Amino acid sequence: MTAHPDPSRRNVLRAAGTAGAAALTVAACGGGQDASTAVAATAGTPAAATGTLLAKAADVPVGGGVILVDLKLVVTQPTAGQFKAFSAICPHQGCAVSAVQDGYIDCTCHGSRFAVGTGAPTPDSPAKAPLTPQQVTVQGSDVVTA
Fold first, then answer.
1. Is residue 71 part of a domain?
2. pLDDT digits (tens, 9 = 90+) for 3-48
3. What is the per-residue pLDDT for 17?
4. Who contacts 1 (Cβ-Cβ below 8 Å, separation ≥6)?
5. What is the C-alpha separation between 60 and 110, in angstroms, rounded?
6. Which of 80, 84, 104, 123 could serve as a FRET partner for 131 with CA atoms 20 to 30 Å apart?
7. Longest C-alpha distance within the chain, in Å?
8. Would 70 be classed as within a structural domain?
9. What is the pLDDT at residue 22?
């Protein structure tokens, strides 16, 4: 068995940055998204700390939402002034959701759809479990983690 040296901090950070940039590129170039779907990059780590800025409230369309690729979260606004957040990882087989449109969060890997207000799958979705909810609040004009 060959021992592998621990990677340097610089190489780990470089790899993480490259992976993040690739994820944003794939998300931004994904097909089938309409103008109401925003893919936002945010500063932070996947485990967002309380008070972490997720999105500007004005950037989250009513009846739609934004996918925060870096944080693996979806922030939605089911009705005016009501904000929700869910994991962006589909419980069916672990794919990242790819669009928010027409009142649904879509995972195009296998066709699962989730309600923007509850994260619950539609009856015809391969996913049978809902997206995992996350606590958010509005501070001024910002949607932040609670």
1. yes
2. 444 544 444 444 444 444 333 333 333 333 333 333 333 333 345 7
3. 45
4. none
5. 25
6. 80
7. 59
8. yes
9. 39
Domain count, the chain: 1
Q: Output the domain CATH number for residue 122.
A: 2.102.10.10
Token pair belonging to 57: 């409230």
Any domain includes 2: no
Contact 114/74 with Cβ under 8 angstroms?
A: no
Q: Residue 91: pLDDT above 90?
A: yes
pLDDT score at 50: 83
In contact, 95 and 126? CB cutoff 8 Å: no
The model's pTM is: 0.68
CB 136 within 8 A of CB 75: yes
How long is the chain?
146
Instruction: Note whether residue 72 is domain-resident.
Output: yes
Q: Give the chain's count of helices (H) and strands (E).
A: 1, 11
Alpha-carbon distance 117 to 60, whole Å?
A: 13
